[in-house]
Amino acid sequence: MDKRRNVETLVVLQSIAVDTGSPDREGRLVIANGLLVGVLVRLDTPEHEEERSNWFFEAGLGRLQGLRAPTFDNLEAATRWVRKHLKP
């Protein structure tokens, strides 16, 4: 059995302010196994009323670059999405 398939990707979310050009500034750096792989931003502007407080995948790096992600209800859902898309 391939042991790498049994090891879950370690995802760490680090708080950071993000200059998005809008009031949406609360962000998280997405670090997977020690590598920066993305940036999440919490939606908080009136034009995002239906998705207010959801998390938007602002930018992806490496294998996540260019992927379209849904908005996430919470950070746990975002973490699951990241792990799913980083599986070998």
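(ticket continues) Second input and output from the same batch:
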Amino acid sequence: MQIKSIIFDLDGLLINSEIFSFEIYKELLAQHQHNFTLENYAQNYSGRSSILNMENPPKKTDSENSKSVFLLY
């Protein structure tokens, strides 16, 4: 069998999975009392790999020491 074509889904082309990524981040961070907004996600995390997002984690601005939320995992 010969491959005649390949379809690349460049997130949003066929299926927009960004909202699922946001919901996962939001749910995980809520377990640690962090309010992760869609605006924050869109400005700082949307369209980036999970590895890059882990290198730039959100901060808990209301905490006394502003530790990275992802350090809790």
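Agent notes: Helices lie at 18-30, 38-44, 50-55. Residues 18-30 form the longest helix (13 residues). Closing as not reproducible unless the customer responds.
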